[in-house]
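Appendix B. Chain record.
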Amino acid sequence: MLTVDFSRFPLAPGDRVLDLGCGAGRHAFECYRRGAQVVALDQNGDEIREVAKWFAAMKEAGEAPAGASATAMEGDALALPFPDDSFDVVIISEVMEHIPDDKGVLAEMVRVLKPGGRIAVTVPRYGPEKICWALSDAYHEVEGGHIRIYRGDELLGKMREAGLEPYGTHHAHGLHSPYWWLKCAFGVDNDKALPVKAYHKLLVWDIMKKPLATRLAEQALNPVIGKSFVAYATKPHLPEEPAAATEASAPAPEAKKAARSAKPAKAAAAKPAKTSATSAKSAAGAAK
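Structure tokens predicted for this chain:
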């Protein structure tokens, strides 16, 4: 189940991709299948070990094309272990709502993203998320749980402040909002409630079979109650040197004229020193 729409977020074979806070690895697996050089990073060691196993299984099954690569590693989103401008693509899906220093995470993502690179950020949508918080304190008042609810314009504003240029947004998983409302109403940890069990079966069937009826239903529901808000952006290239600066560095007409007048004298003065310059060059060669 992908939240990022790769028809709006193009990925080329050979692109170096960071899936930050990869969780179970769903986006990392898709990027690997598309021929990317993927790094899946998360602070949860158990999940990273599981993602590494799946990468190995995909390679053995021939699911990834030649040239693709995949690495799973533990890491801190606020101190990424990569040099500046390391990745063509960065994905962070359903992570930023968990992290107190979301501006710090954005800064790190921008740092490791190459100029001209693309970034996809997904977070829970404000309306459906607000209902979950109203129905259940246990949904968000847990260690590592959601600590904020983003409005779309707020997230875009923070992305711009970090130096990114957003170019598109949409909503995803309209069928999933009612499931989470039921979970919150009957108890977040209560998977045995009949409405929760029934709706979960529907979602599993939809994910596995992808029937046309539910695909059309979700397309209709996404703008209204889509569970996730998805934003796409690019990191701008460095500005070129202004033409004015180039002109300022060029010699003025008077300076050019004076230089032409001085040129013969300079050449005459330099001529007697030719022998010593050659000797100096030979001496330098000998010193090497």
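Further analysis of this model is presented in Appendix C.
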